[in-house]
Amino acid sequence: MVEPSLGALVAVSVGVGFLAYFFLGSFLTGAGYEPTGASTAATMLALPDVGPEDTVLDLVAGTGALVVRAVRDRGARAIAVENEPIRLFVLRWRRRRLPDPGRLEVRRANLFATELRGPRVIFAFLWPTSMERLRPKLERELSPGTWVVSHAHEVPGWIPTRRQGEVYAYRWPECRERPGGLRADGRGTRTFP
Fold it and tell me: Which letter, b or e, does each residue of 58-83 get, where b requires 16 or more Cβ atoms within 10 Å of its Cβ?
């Protein structure tokens, strides 16, 4: 039987610790790491029809799935907000690999301290409690016509303007809750195939 060396045990321990930190550590902040798949990212960019004239803001950009695609595939300008150091490092590395890295601004910041006025589209892929906490800030700071797009978790009290699967797109201020809210049959929401 081969005994593992001390170096191998240390390497495995460091690797496991890194993965635990990267994937689980930030769940306490309300924005744990959940990579956005290519088809979901494409939907999130399509519902508000992101194009070259747009600026998009990703409030918890992670490793940049949405903002990199917005710049590379749609020609948009993008602002990525991330506070977790390892994801921020990966995001900055991905920015340097873009054909036009100047179209992507990366900020280390807290999403709740980020100015929301300006971008036409805001991505917010957050846990429900964080979405609830973010809602008053959105309602105070959004300009009319701004889109808020979320994956998997709705903005509490808002009615999606467009929806495809688990992607919710809200156009401010039309998305404000109407009497009765969103019905189970989706009435009041434009659902895309």
Answer: bbbbbbbbbbbbbbbebebbbbbbbb
Q: Closest by alpha carbon to 72, among 89, 94, 57?
A: 94
- Which tokens is 12 given? 């495995």
Whether CATH 3.40.50.150 fits 30-191 = yes
E strands, 26-158, in order: 55-58, 77-82, 104-108, 121-123, 147-151
Provide mean pLDDT across the span 45-64.
96
The residue with greater pLDDT, 186 or 17, is: 17
Please give the C-alpha separations between residue 25 and each of 29, 71, 80, 114, in angstroms, as whole numbers. 9, 29, 20, 22
The residue assigned the tokens 């993965």 is: 19
Confidence label for 185 from pLDDT (cuts 50, 70 and 90): very low
SS3 string, 122-135, reads EECCCCHHHHHHHH
Q: Spell out the domain ranges in the chain.
A: 30-191
**Residue carrying the six token digits 């959004």:** 142
Residue 36 has pLDDT above 70, yes or no: yes
